[in-house]
Design brief:
Layout lengths: L1 H12 L7 H12 L7 E6 L7 H10 L3 E7 L6 H8 L3 E5 L2 H8 L3 E4 L6 H10 L3 E4 L7 H13 L4 E3 L7 H11 L6 E11 L6 H5 L5 H4 L3 H17 L3 E9 L11 E8 L4 E10 L4 E8 L2 E8 L3 E6 L9 E4 L6 H13 L9 H20 L3 E2 L3
Parallel strand pairs: 1-2, 1-4, 2-3, 4-5, 5-6, 7-10
Antiparallel strand pairs: 7-11, 8-9, 8-15, 9-10, 11-12, 12-13, 13-14
C-alpha cells in the first residue's frame, strides 16, 4: 500500500509541467520504428474548399509510419500543391475516389471534404476495407450517419472522427486524475468553446458551404461544440444520455447556420453539464473546461493558455491547488494523426472508435432536434 501511495505521489509530482510531450512523442516514434509493423499506404481525399486541407497534408508529410500517399481531388485543382506539401511521400493524384482506392488499397484513408460530399467518400473507403480518419462533421444528417456507421461495423473498420482534443496532454492528464478517483464521483461540468465573429463578416465565408445548413449540417455546434461534447464523455468515461439546447444566430450575419449554441446535458451516470459555444470575439479563442466532483475539482484552460489547475481531498493527492502547464507543440492534430497511423499499423488502440465517433455526432443531432422542438432528447443507449 505504501509503495502504491509513494509511486502515485511521484507521478503526481511530475505533473507540474508537460514538457513530457517529448517523451510521449519519442514513445510513438519508437513504436513506429518497430520492424514487424511496416509503414502504411494512405489515400487523402480532398477538394479546394475542404477544412484543414493544407495542415492535414503537412502532417501526413511528416508523420512516422507512412510510406506512400495518393491524393484524390475530383476537381484536380489541388494536385500540384499536394505534391509539394507531401514531398517524397507523394505517389500520384487522381480525380476518381474509387479508382485511386482500388489501385492503392490503402490501410488508412484520410478525408476532408465539404460535409455533404463526405459520406460517399467514406463509404467507398470502407467498402475497400480501409480504416477512415475523417474531418468533422463527416455527414449532414442522421440518415447519412447511420449508413456510414453500419458500413464501418459490417467491414470491421474504424471510422475515426478527427476529435483532436483527445490527444491533448492536458486532457490525458485530466482523464488520468478522474479515472484514478482523485475527483471522486463527477458531479458537474461547464465548458466554453468560443471563437471569433470576424470570420462571419467575411463575404466569402457567408457565400461558402460552411454557412449552408444543407451543405454543412449546421454551424458552431457541429463544427466546434462537438469537440467538447466528445471530450466530456472521454474524460469521465460516461456517454451523454439526455440533452437540451438552444441554437441561434445572435450576431445577425447573413448565414443559414447558428453562430451560437447553449447545451445542457446529463450523462448516463448522472453528471450534469453545460456547453456554451459561439462566435463572440473579435479575434482568438477562449476555451475552457471545469469539472467538479465529490473529492475535488479541475479547470482546463485550453486556449489561449494551456494549463490545468486542480485540487483534491484524496489522501494520496498533494495539498493545495496544483498547476500543470503544456507547450504549444506538437499540435493536437499532429498527435491525433500519429495515433491513428500507429493504430492502423497494429501499434495501439484507435484514438477514437466508430462507436465514439457516432456518439459525438448523434449528440449534436439530438441537440439540434432539442433546439428545434423545445424538448429534451434522450440518446439511445
Amino acid at each position: 500500500m505504501n509503495g502504491d501511495i509513494s509511486g502515485r505521489r511521484a507521478v503526481l509530482g511530475g505533473l507540474t509541467t508537460l514538457g513530457g510531450i517529448q517523451t510521449w512523442q519519442s514513445h510513438c516514434q519508437g513504436q513506429a520504428a518497430a520492424p514487424d509493423h511496416a509503414p502504411i499506404d494512405v489515400v487523402f481525399v480532398t477538394e479546394p474548399t475542404a477544412s484543414h486541407r493544407r495542415s492535414y497534408l503537412r502532417i501526413l508529410g511528416k508523420c512516422d509510419g507512412v510510406r506512400r500517399i495518393a491524393v484524390v481531388d475530383p476537381t484536380g485543382q489541388t494536385a500540384e500543391e499536394s505534391k509539394r506539401l507531401l514531398g517524397n511521400r507523394f505517389a500520384y493524384a487522381g480525380k476518381d475516389t474509387n479508382k485511386v482506392l482500388a489501385n492503392l488499397r490503402p490501410a488508412l484513408t484520410v478525408i476532408t471534404l465539404e460535409a455533404h460530399h463526405t459520406p460517399a467518400a467514406i463509404a467507398e473507403a470502407l467498402r475497400l476495407h480501409s480504416h477512415v480518419l475523417t474531418e468533422k462533421p463527416a455527414c449532414v444528417d442522421r440518415a447519412q450517419l447511420n449508413r456510414i456507421v453500419t458500413l464501418a461495423d459490417n467491414h470491421r473498420r474504424q471510422l475515426m472522427l478527427a476529435m483532436a482534443t483527445r490527444s491533448s496532454p492536458l486532457i490525458q492528464r485530466a482523464r488520468s486524475l478522474i479515472q484514478e478517483n482523485f475527483l471522486g464521483k463527477p458531479y458537474a461540468a461547464t465548458m466554453d468553446w468560443i471563437a471569433d465573429q470576424t470570420r462571419l463578416k467575411n463575404l466569402d465565408y457567408q457565400a461558402s458551404w460552411l454557412s449552408s445548413k444543407n451543405r454543412a449540417g449546421g454551424g458552431k455546434l457541429i463544427f466546434h461544440g462537438i469537440h467538447y461534447l466528445d471530450i466530456i464523455t472521454f474524460l469521465v468515461n460516461q456517454p451523454i444520455q439526455h440533452i437540451s439546447a438552444m441554437c441561434a444566430n445572435v450576431g445577425g450575419q447573413p448565414i443559414e447556420v447558428e453562430d451560437a449554441a447553449i447545451v445542457n446535458f446529463q450523462t448516463d451516470k448522472g453528471l450534469l453539464g453545460t456547453l456554451n459555444t459561439g462566435y463572440y470575439l473579435e479575434r482568438g479563442k477562449q476555451n475552457q473546461i471545469r469539472i467538479w466532483g465529490a473529492r475535488g475539482w479541475l479547470e482546463l484552460q485550453m486556449l489561449p493558455e494551456r494549463r490545468m489547475l486542480w485540487s483534491s481531498s484524496h489522501p494520496d493527492a498533494p495539498q493545495g491547488i496544483q498547476e500543470v502547464t503544456c507547450p504549444a507543440t506538437p499540435g493536437l492534430y499532429e498527435l491525433f494523426f500519429q495515433a491513428a497511423i500507429a493504430f492502423t499499423r497494429g501499434l495501439g488502440e484507435p484514438p477514437i472508435t466508430t462507436t465514439e465517433s457516432a456518439h459525438a455526432l448523434e449528440t449534436v443531432f439530438c441537440g439540434y432536434q432539442a433546439a428545434a422542438n423545445g424538448q429534451t432528447q434522450t440518446l439511445a443507449s
